[in-house]
# Entry
Amino acid sequence: MPGTVIIGAQWGDEGKGKITDLLAAEADVVVRYSGGPNAGHTIVRGQNIYRLHHVPSGILYPHVTCLLGNGMVIDPENLLNEMDGLMEGGIDISGLHISDRAHLIMPYHRLLDRASETARGRQAIGTTGRGIGPAYTDKAARRGLRMHHLLDVGRARDDIERACQLANLQLKFRFDHPGLDVEELIEQCQRWSARLRPYIMDTALFLDQAIEQGQKVLFEGAQGILLDVDHGTFPFVTSTATGIGGALTGTGVGPQALQRIVGITKAYTTRVGAGPFPTELFDAAGDRLVDQGHEFGTTTGRRRRTGWLDAVALRYAVRVNGLTDLALTKLDVLTGFPTLHVCTAYQVGGQKTTYFPARTDQLAACEPLFEALPGWSEDIRDVRAFDQLPKAAQQYVQRLEQLAGAPVTIISVGPDRDQTFLRAAE
# Structure
């Protein structure tokens, strides 16, 4: 630090919440910069399990100020439920602040999201149905509602009515849905306003002042770079910038504030939802990864698709984000496999390539070219230093570094916070 960014280096679900929780211990401020309740971070502390969807992982530290940045889309009802759950669990949320520029996910966004997915049929993208895409669509079309509209609902009434009426037209004529009652929506906004108004502020200004004072700031990403609207497997992506660009535009800071960019990657690969996945496994090994890795989505509960580590995609993540180092999670899940496989290149159209293609039809046609590495059978969940790992596990990590082009400086060997250790770059 002072400016450290956490970025998912795969299709999300890499364990960013755990790594953010680890690094937040040394931070003064943690800011979430993109996405909404379509993302979920699970943090395990002893017997307590915290599942966060909006709130940054740093909320578990009383000394940390937590910000919801302007790049997020926020579901007020969902956020309030999350805040209530934290308070019921004894967590102090007085240090939580919400950007007045963050866009709102309204009830009609959820309706539009689900109706649109249903209408796509077999071409469905696999969204969470949480209204993320429609909310970002309204943002890009310059007709969205922002958190500052909740500061004075009476003054914002015309904007809310106009937005609801437009959404109702889409619901009625595209999906044969009656739409929402405007007055009921206004009442909802007033309820949200009464509770959220004290938390809304100019978070970009707050960040600028914190950085000016030399405070340590941790930028928390959501999803992963392969779901980035520009650099991901379009159209099977989310609707915002999940990479390094989103850390800047989603918080209002300049690049000079960032000193360290950490990519989070599992020791294998997973994906939720539709879209190409070159190393996906459809055999007993894939089922074993699901079982041993407990691969079910935090937000949706959906079974994740699993596959061997894709080093082509990981090298791409390093390049487009300028990752300075990697955090490797779930290394323990690979224990017991006699042989491990890492995808080092693709073969498509009779040609070998080590580059990640833009076209999803090309990616879907890619045949992964694997390198076999020896596995290990020793239980590594109590390991707390790199040289304590079995030689085969050390070799696996070192080979990953060579293929990705970035050092692995954090290694996780279990779900608990203390099952993570730091490693100096070699």
